[in-house]
Amino acid sequence: MTTISKSWLRTHGVDGPDEDVVALAEQTEAALEYRVGISLLELLTEEQAEAFEELLDNGAPEKERLAFLDERTPGYKEVVRQETEALKQNIANADDPGEYIRNLKT
Q: Using an 8 Å Cβ cutoff, are 104 and 31 in contact?
Protein backbone atom coordinates (compact mmCIF):
# COMPACT_ATOMS: atom_id res chain seq x y z
CA MET A 1 0.00 0.00 0.00
CA THR A 2 3.04 2.26 -0.07
CA THR A 3 1.59 5.76 -0.34
CA ILE A 4 3.64 7.83 2.08
CA SER A 5 7.26 7.80 1.03
CA LYS A 6 10.47 8.89 2.67
CA SER A 7 10.68 11.86 0.29
CA TRP A 8 7.10 12.90 1.09
CA LEU A 9 7.94 12.81 4.80
CA ARG A 10 11.10 14.86 4.26
CA THR A 11 9.18 17.56 2.36
CA HIS A 12 6.73 17.73 5.28
CA GLY A 13 9.18 18.36 8.06
CA VAL A 14 10.55 14.95 8.98
CA ASP A 15 14.32 15.05 9.12
CA GLY A 16 17.12 12.91 10.42
CA PRO A 17 19.21 10.03 9.13
CA ASP A 18 17.78 8.10 6.20
CA GLU A 19 17.29 4.93 8.26
CA ASP A 20 15.20 6.89 10.80
CA VAL A 21 13.03 8.43 8.08
CA VAL A 22 12.60 5.04 6.41
CA ALA A 23 11.51 3.60 9.76
CA LEU A 24 9.00 6.45 10.17
CA ALA A 25 7.69 5.84 6.63
CA GLU A 26 7.19 2.17 7.50
CA GLN A 27 5.47 3.10 10.76
CA THR A 28 3.23 5.51 8.85
CA GLU A 29 2.29 2.79 6.38
CA ALA A 30 1.47 0.40 9.24
CA ALA A 31 -0.73 3.05 10.85
CA LEU A 32 -2.44 3.70 7.52
CA GLU A 33 -3.13 -0.01 7.04
CA TYR A 34 -4.59 -0.11 10.56
CA ARG A 35 -6.86 2.87 9.89
CA VAL A 36 -8.02 1.50 6.55
CA GLY A 37 -8.67 -1.87 8.14
CA ILE A 38 -10.80 -0.36 10.88
CA SER A 39 -12.80 1.65 8.34
CA LEU A 40 -13.32 -1.36 6.08
CA LEU A 41 -14.44 -3.56 8.97
CA GLU A 42 -17.35 -1.17 9.45
CA LEU A 43 -18.47 -1.97 5.88
CA LEU A 44 -18.29 -5.76 6.24
CA THR A 45 -20.70 -8.13 7.93
CA GLU A 46 -19.32 -10.11 10.84
CA GLU A 47 -19.00 -13.19 8.63
CA GLN A 48 -17.19 -11.23 5.92
CA ALA A 49 -14.84 -9.72 8.48
CA GLU A 50 -14.01 -13.18 9.82
CA ALA A 51 -13.40 -14.47 6.28
CA PHE A 52 -11.10 -11.54 5.55
CA GLU A 53 -9.18 -12.04 8.79
CA GLU A 54 -8.72 -15.67 7.79
CA LEU A 55 -7.24 -14.54 4.46
CA LEU A 56 -4.82 -12.31 6.36
CA ASP A 57 -3.93 -15.00 8.89
CA ASN A 58 -3.28 -17.52 6.13
CA GLY A 59 -1.02 -15.14 4.20
CA ALA A 60 -3.27 -14.88 1.16
CA PRO A 61 -1.67 -13.00 -1.73
CA GLU A 62 -2.48 -9.31 -2.00
CA LYS A 63 -4.35 -9.91 -5.27
CA GLU A 64 -6.71 -12.33 -3.49
CA ARG A 65 -7.26 -9.95 -0.58
CA LEU A 66 -8.01 -7.04 -2.91
CA ALA A 67 -10.43 -9.15 -4.95
CA PHE A 68 -12.23 -10.05 -1.72
CA LEU A 69 -12.55 -6.39 -0.78
CA ASP A 70 -13.55 -5.33 -4.27
CA GLU A 71 -16.37 -7.86 -4.33
CA ARG A 72 -17.71 -7.08 -0.86
CA THR A 73 -16.88 -3.39 -0.45
CA PRO A 74 -16.82 -1.80 -3.90
CA GLY A 75 -15.94 1.57 -2.36
CA TYR A 76 -12.82 0.30 -0.60
CA LYS A 77 -10.49 2.27 -2.88
CA GLU A 78 -12.23 5.48 -1.82
CA VAL A 79 -11.79 4.49 1.84
CA VAL A 80 -8.07 4.00 1.21
CA ARG A 81 -7.86 7.38 -0.54
CA GLN A 82 -9.72 9.20 2.24
CA GLU A 83 -7.69 7.61 5.03
CA THR A 84 -4.44 8.34 3.18
CA GLU A 85 -5.33 11.98 2.66
CA ALA A 86 -6.47 12.41 6.26
CA LEU A 87 -3.24 10.93 7.61
CA LYS A 88 -1.12 13.03 5.26
CA GLN A 89 -2.98 16.15 6.36
CA ASN A 90 -2.46 15.31 10.04
CA ILE A 91 1.26 14.76 9.48
CA ALA A 92 1.62 17.95 7.44
CA ASN A 93 -0.17 19.99 10.12
CA ALA A 94 1.67 18.52 13.11
CA ASP A 95 4.08 20.76 15.02
CA ASP A 96 6.54 17.85 15.09
CA PRO A 97 5.67 15.42 12.28
CA GLY A 98 8.24 12.84 13.41
CA GLU A 99 6.85 12.76 16.94
CA TYR A 100 3.29 12.60 15.58
CA ILE A 101 4.23 9.53 13.53
CA ARG A 102 5.99 7.85 16.45
CA ASN A 103 2.73 8.12 18.43
CA LEU A 104 0.48 6.67 15.72
CA LYS A 105 -1.46 3.55 16.60
CA THR A 106 -0.48 0.59 14.44
A: yes
Domain membership of residue 32 (yes or no) is yes
The answer to whether residue 4 sits within a structural domain is no
- The 10s digit of each residue's pLDDT in 24-78 is 999 999 999 899 989 999 999 999 999 999 998 999 998 999 999 999 998 899 9
Distinct helix (H) and strand (E) counts, the chain: 6, 0
User: What residues make up the domain containing 83?
Assistant: 20-102
Q: How far apart are CA 47 and CA 86, in angstroms?
A: 29
pTM of the model: 0.82
If one counts the domains in the chain, the total is 1
